[in-house]
Amino acid sequence: MNKQVKIYGPGKVRVDDASNPEPGPRDAVVRVAACGICGTDVRYVRMGGLGRHMPLGHELSGVIESIGAEVSDFAPGMRVVLNPTASANMIGNGGAEGGFTRELLVRNAADGGCLFPIPDELPMHLAALAEPLGVGMNAVDRAEVSPNDKVAVFGAGPIGLAAIATLRDRGVADVVAVDLSPRRLELARALGARATIKVSEEDPWVELKKLHGEVPLMGAPMAGTDAYIEASGAGKVITDVLQNAKAESRLTVVALHEQPVNVSFLWVMMKQMTIRGAMEYPADYSEAVDLLTRWDFSPMITHRFPLERISEGIDVASDPNAGGKVMIDIDPEVN
After folding, report:
1. What is the DSSP letter of 240?
2. Three-state DSSP state, 80
3. What is the pLDDT at residue 332?
């Protein structure tokens, strides 16, 4: 019997029995091996979903179970990861399907942007990191960093960690991670940060000026950081960056800010700063899959639960001090 996790109201999640899907001519069915819990999932659960009985989950890996007659680039037995928003599927994001299921219908797989093959040597629980890694990778792309740049990543949750790992892979050696959680800062070091700042004990701007040096602006010392990636979701980070950043520096915002942030465009103008948003991920997952294959991302996954214990997993994922990525092992026999 198939299973499907759905939201039934604020804080109410249930694992339901579900029918086994059958693919249409342009569809595929994926037998899901693992699916990560995202901060967005936690937010959906808190708010009661985006609609009635919303299916949950979008960070997944699995094996193709069956395909429709018009699907030519994939075959049953292929190991894959998923772009959940491709072809307007919105899997786990208000669409008709969600990734916390044993068998997932992927509509319009024939379009070619939904599924991406993964190598046999990449474990399924690590392959499921492709989606959050893509989010962090897109943030780095938008920051336009070079190997000699000094970079600060605010927020060492899964997306910040993904950005740090991407920076390391691209040869950026001077990356500083800033967070409240000692556990997450440990993970940041494991994934490539050369230094960390615990904001509950240290002033991040005093420490950044020590680590990255100072650059004067109209007689005032600014941090010598070249690029900032905001992955914390704290509005104060944005205002502090604008106040303390040097001229010509860059800020990329990848965290979701639900409340308006007071931005001083006087600072933006005077410093000729660049501010960019980073939404979702590159259309092609190939680079993320390649990076997962070449580097060990196992430190990022700090908790694993079976599907039946997903409520426990959501509780852990709701605690910013608990660690990194929470992974749900849906079908351990899929490899």
Report:
1. H
2. strand
3. 84
Please give the residue range of the domain that contains residue 201.
134-277
Rounded to the nearest angstrom, the gap between the alpha carbon of residue 49 and the centroid of all alpha carbons in its chain is 19
Interhelix angle 310-317/39-47, rounded to 10 degrees, is 110
Q: What are phi and psi of 147, to 5 degrees?
A: -55, -30
Radius of gyration for the alpha carbons in the chain, expressed in angstroms and rounded: 20
Looking at beta carbons, which pairs linking 209-216 to residues 24 or more positions away fall under 8 Å? 211/150, 211/174, 211/176, 212/150, 212/152, 212/174, 212/176, 213/150, 215/246, 215/247
Q: What is the rounded CA–CA span in Å between residue 249 and residue 239?
A: 14
171 with 251, same domain? yes
* Same domain for 317 and 303: yes
Six token digits for residue 172: 């950026």
Give yes or no: residues 27 and 82 share one domain: yes
pLDDT digits (tens, 9 = 90+) for 117-165: 999 999 999 999 999 999 999 999 999 999 999 999 999 999 999 999 9
Is there a domain that residue 138 lies in?
yes
Give whole-number Cα distances, 214 to 176, 198, 206, 223, 334, in Å. 15, 20, 10, 5, 52
DSSP H/E element including 139: helix 130-143
Distance CA 284, CA 277 (A): 19
Pairing of β 214-217 and β 195-198: unpaired
**Would you give the DSSP letter of residue 157?**
S
Task: Verify that 37 and 159 share a domain, yes or no.
Answer: no
Instruction: Determine phi and psi for 61, rounding to 5 degrees.
Output: -135, 160
Q: pLDDT tier at 323 (50, 70, 90 boundaries)?
A: confident
CATH code for position 238: 3.40.50.720
pLDDT in tens, 160-182: 999 999 999 999 999 999 999 99
Q: Is the same domain home to 80 and 181?
A: no
Please state the domain count of the chain.
2
